[in-house]
Amino acid sequence: MSFVDVVKEDDPTNNVPDTIYSKIGLQLHRRDNHPLGILKNTIYDYFDKSFPGQFVKFDDLCPLVSTKQNFDDVLVPADHVSRSYNDTYYVDSQTVLRCHTSAHQAELLREGHRHFLVIGDVYRRDSIDSTHYPVFHQMEGFRVFSPDDWSGSGMDGTAYAATDLKKTLEGLATHLFGAVEMRWVDTYFPFTNPSFELEIYFQGDWLEVLGCGVTEQEILKSNGRTDHVAWAFGLGLERLAMVLFDIPDIRLFWSNDQRFTSQFSKGKLGVKFKPFSKFPPCYKDMSFWINDEFTENNLCEVVRGIAGDLVEEVKLIDNFTNKKGMTSHCYRIAYRSMERSLTDEEINDMQWNVREEVKSKLRVELR
Ligand code: DAH
């Protein structure tokens, strides 16, 4: 499967729009002067320093993966929402744009790797606001232990891996954020048990930094590592870069505006972004009677398809059901460019097109 085959307008098993297609291959994480590349390299430095010569890095793996790689290989249950067409971009019924870098765990294990980092663009259908964008970037980390590693420790393999995992990731958080307060929160992931989230206290709030855990035995067994244990973690680069660089809106990562790009340079983590201008948002409301198939993700895709990166937020502001059982939603759409002021005319045009497409594509009844 090559990139050119990704958008198939008439194929009902395909839900990849042009706006997403155009992002494939841009690889922001491989630009050394981009905040995502700077963050990636800083994390590399930590692993190189803590484990000299051990972690192999993959930042160029193809984002088109099979449903087996994305879901089955990492034990995502058959009925998990992430498998739905509402949440994931399908190229055809067997192929998706990966929704997480965990999709590569199994193949890299089978290739014999024991310590690796995977960095890449990941894709998710989602709502629209300043921290959510349908393409973002993740880093996956994986470390395998053999019985020799834990035999003298007085711990079983799982406890040994969990201890090493926590120590390693606390070190990473300190490397990125300095001496911050941290806490571990128990959670659930299909591919790890036990599973944890690491949070740090940063600028007055608890911030989730990453998810991690001790890899399910079944994954190791199926991929040539019977009797081994492993830990894994996954983190979102944008989320961390937004707080480290003070970047207020996730769309900025995609900006080619010199006033954005010129503020960052190789090796300089945490240089604070200076907004070059702040244009006012323009709000437009839209109400309609929804139908059974209506989802907010589908609405957002329509809006993004028309307004592109000029849409800042799509927010449900009113929701009621009448006596006949019909449900009405009112959405407020915020239009704002990061780079220039928008004219009334272009906003009105966009809103008119949004209304027409919402009516025709989502088959809802505008009020
Ligand atoms: N794949 C998870 C996600 O996208 C992140 C993650 C959590 C990766 C725990 C891991 C892990 O490897 O152990 O939300």
Automatic annotation (TrEMBL):
Top EC class for this record: ligase
PROSITE patterns assigned: AA_TRNA_LIGASE_II, FDX_ACB
Record-listed E.C. numbers: 6.1.1.20
Keyword terms, alphabetized: Aminoacyl-tRNA synthetase, ATP-binding, Ligase, Mitochondrion, Nucleotide-binding, Protein biosynthesis, Transit peptide
GO molecular function: ATP binding; phenylalanine-tRNA ligase activity; tRNA binding
Pfam families: FDX-ACB, tRNA-synt_2d
Matches recorded under Gene3D superfamilies: Bira Bifunctional Protein, Domain 2 (3.30.930.10), Ferrodoxin-fold anticodon-binding domain (3.30.70.380)
Residues annotated as domain FDX-ACB: 277-367
GO biological process: phenylalanyl-tRNA aminoacylation
InterPro entries given in the database record: aa-tRNA-synth_II, aa-tRNA-synth_II/BPL/LPL, Fdx_antiC-bd, Fdx_antiC-bd_sf, Phe-tRNA-synth_IIc_mito, Phenylalanyl-tRNA_Synthase
SUPFAM superfamilies documented for this protein: Anticodon-binding domain of PheRS, Class II aaRS and biotin synthetases
Subcellular location: Mitochondrion matrix
GO cellular component: mitochondrial matrix
Family: Belongs to the class-II aminoacyl-tRNA synthetase family.
Role: Is responsible for the charging of tRNA(Phe) with phenylalanine in mitochondrial translation.
Protein name (record): phenylalanine--tRNA ligase
